Amino acid sequence: MAVKVGIERVTKQYGGEGDAHFVLALDDVSFALDDGEFVSLLGPSGCGKSTLLHIVAGFEDATQGTVRVNGKPVAGPGADRGMVFQDYALFPWMTVMQNVTFGLRIKNLPQRECERIAREHIALVGLAGFENRFPHQLSGGMRQRSALARSVANNPEVLLMDEPLAAIDALTRNALQEEILKVCDARDGRPRKSVLYVTHSIEEAIFLSDRIVVMTPRPGRILEVVGVPFARPRNDATRLAPEFQQLAGEIWSTLKSHIKPN
Asked: Which of 130, 206, 218, 231 is the most buried (most CB within 10 A)?
């Protein structure tokens, strides 16, 4: 399988050594995201998961090391990478339709084509009939569905997701996990999405991922890479399987042994 994103010995520090505000956020991190693979970055708050995702997105530069997408070094944001944020990042003055068509219009696609693609993805995330609603008229889960539709509608090669469900209630969160898998799966001749996903939920990482990159507390290093053995599609039966709970327990034990009490 071809490598879609290569992360090679990435270190990120803020400030200089000896500076009172010096922070070593990431230390010598290397792994690859293969084409069509779903990989989660899992670890405690402050371990550098989001920082690494922002470096892949091109929002920040690594202090040392290289990130490559399709073999080319990342030099800034690009249309080959789509981002879904925790806080939705929808334009509040735009409707759902206008938000989802925003990136498509930047590509100078005809208006009718923009609306066709947008309606397809709005329906895919379960928001058909809400095209003309504004973000403030939607629940948190519906806003995140809108943000997901907007990112996937642009058809990026890599989807980057930064704790997109952290602010969602538990029941809606489970439903949205299934929506994410549905949206990222192969369909209509399109290949399965390559996804790099940040979470601090062990269960969420297991449910969504092909592999989980478990990170240490700051400075973020790779503690282990865990393969997830469950077949797709996944559903509530997956979550209830004894093997699922056993794997969650094993990952928690590994993390717990590296978390120091305050």
From this structure: 206
Total count of domains within the chain: 1
Kindly report the pTM of this predicted structure. Answer: 0.93
Q: Is the pLDDT of residue 1 over 90?
A: no
| R_g of the chain computed on alpha carbons | 19
- Is residue 48 within 8 A of residue 71, CB to CB? The reply is no
Q: Does the residue 170 lie in any domain?
A: no
* pLDDT reported for residue 261: 61
Closest CA to 226 of 70, 39, 47, 60: 39
Are 84 and 160 in contact by the 8 Å Cβ rule? The answer is: yes
What are the pLDDT digits (tens) for 140-188? 999 999 999 999 999 999 999 999 998 888 888 998 999 999 989 877 7
- If you ran DSSP here, which 8-state letter would residue 192 be given? P
E strand or H helix at 38 = strand 38-42
Candidate ranges 14-18, 122-126, 210-214; pick with highest mean pLDDT:
210-214
pLDDT in the model for residue 86: 86
CB within 8 A of 242, min separation 6: which ones? none
Which residues contact residue 17 at a Cβ distance below 8 angstroms, ignoring those fewer than 6 apart? Answer: none
Q: Which domain holds residue 103?
A: 82-155
